[in-house]
Amino acid sequence: MNVVIIGCGVVGAAIAYQLSQVKGLKITVCDRQAPAQASTGAALGVLMGAISQKIKGKAWQMRQTSIQRYETLIPELEALTGRKIPFNRQGILSLGLEEENLAAWEKLVEVRHSQGWHLEIWDTAKLKNICPQVDHETITGAVYSPQDRQLDPTALTLALVEAAQQNGVTFKFGVAVLDAQTSPPESSPQFCVQLETTEGKIAADWFVVAAGLGSTPLTAKLNQIIDIRPVLGQALQMRVEHPLGNPDFQPAITGNDVHIVPVGGGDYWVGATVEFPNNGDEIPPNQELLESVREQAIAFCPELATATILRTWSGLRPRPEGRPAPVIGKLPGFNNVLLATGHYRNGVLLAPATAYAIREMIIPQGIGNGE
């Protein structure tokens, strides 16, 4: 059985690796760019599972599945490829526990406990003792999630590609989809017969659209537009002379939607902005917004005021219009076109669960989502 995956960000690569473990599938992945170039390359890789406010239904289930899978996936990929994937196992610390939010956090701690997850509420004294880099004048408390993680999305994607290649997956980079040939319109449901690409025609039994923002023009060729709009995110890499606080305890710190992510030595990723297009799809990066993110990070950890900015970068995140993210399932009207797209700000977090879901649609009697 032939499967073609369009898109090789973290989601497409995770699907390719997951499917490569199924006997009898011939898998091809196409991307018009090199892997991890679009939103994946811009992501900070903060995996907010237990600390997220999602407590039930599919949104929580997918988070839980992914966080659990990462614990085995990272060592598995490192062993297969010999690549090092930076994976911070020191948890996530969420700052800014306002008095009015305390009850909500206490409720979340209880819910997570009943689900088998651990969260801790820290008062100012505990926060000062464990994370002296945090400004204790302004932060009244924090919630610590020891089981949440952060990883390097680009390193992860490249390892997924290499492991999938070892399992026989074919990758075609620099190949764009020009058109799609479908069964006659009167057949219902329709199916996609083949794709016309810059490298010729590709036929398959299944087509998986994991192309982020590229999914909209692609589905338009099948006359079933899935409307996905760009949201820009900017981030910075900053360097201080030495690690902030305790060098042996460097969790990802988040507050007010700003992440401070330790990436080794005294280097930190700080981000990210959330910038919507004004009109059309053009979003020029707004310097003032990036500066306000930097200022917010300094308000949390004042030592960052002395940091040097090594680089700034930005990327577009794919946000589905008028429907919740992500979009996973059959393309309406088609029997053999699957969507795994529009993950907005949770592509890295939800990639493993998305890969399970797609595998389940192609091989229903395969491993369920509970692995």
Automatic annotation (TrEMBL):
InterPro entries, per database record: FAD-dep_OxRdtase, FAD/NAD-bd_sf
KW Oxidoreductase (keyword) present: yes
UniProt domain FAD dependent oxidoreductase: residue ranges: 3-360
Full protein name: Glycine/D-amino acid oxidase
Alphabetized UniProt keyword annotations: Oxidoreductase
Source organism superkingdom: Bacteria
Keyword check for Oxidoreductase: yes
MF term (GO), any: oxidoreductase activity
Any one GO cellular component localisation term in the record: cytoplasm
Native organism: Nostoc flagelliforme CCNUN1
